[in-house]
Design brief:
It is built from two helices and five strands; from the N terminus they run βββββαα. It is of the alpha+beta class and 102 residues long. The protein has one domain.
Length: 102
């Protein structure tokens, strides 16, 4: 999968620096309203266009937003939940390797 470089932004949950993204569907670079997951904390996020700055940013999805996504596009929600689970597994494996997980 290709990695797309982004303008540096911080995860709104864990403040990790996010400067790249991959697309599970291979459809190109992220666009506003695309969904993503932070690889450092597994937060479910959405790309948004920042007025005045002219670039993408990310926000944490609320339960109401997740519910709306499920009502409007269940395959997208399934993909997001799958990516969330995969990120959680990878985080656990990294922490085990670092001796930070019992």
């Amino acid at each position: 999968m290709p990695i797309y470089l982004l303008n540096e932004m911080k995860c709104p949950v864990c403040s990790a620096l996010l400067d790249g993204a991959t697309n599970l569907r291979g459809q190109g670079k992220p666009n506003p309203l695309d969904l993503t997951v932070c690889i450092y904390c597994a937060a479910m996020l959405q790309f948004v266009f920042t007025e005045g700055k002219g670039n993408l940013n990310i926000i944490q999805l609320t339960p109401a937003q997740l519910r709306k996504i499920g009502e409007e596009d269940m395959p997208a929600l399934r993909s997001l939940l799958s990516a969330h689970w995969t990120a959680r597994v990878e985080i656990k494996q990294r922490r085990k390797a670092q001796g930070l997980w019992n």
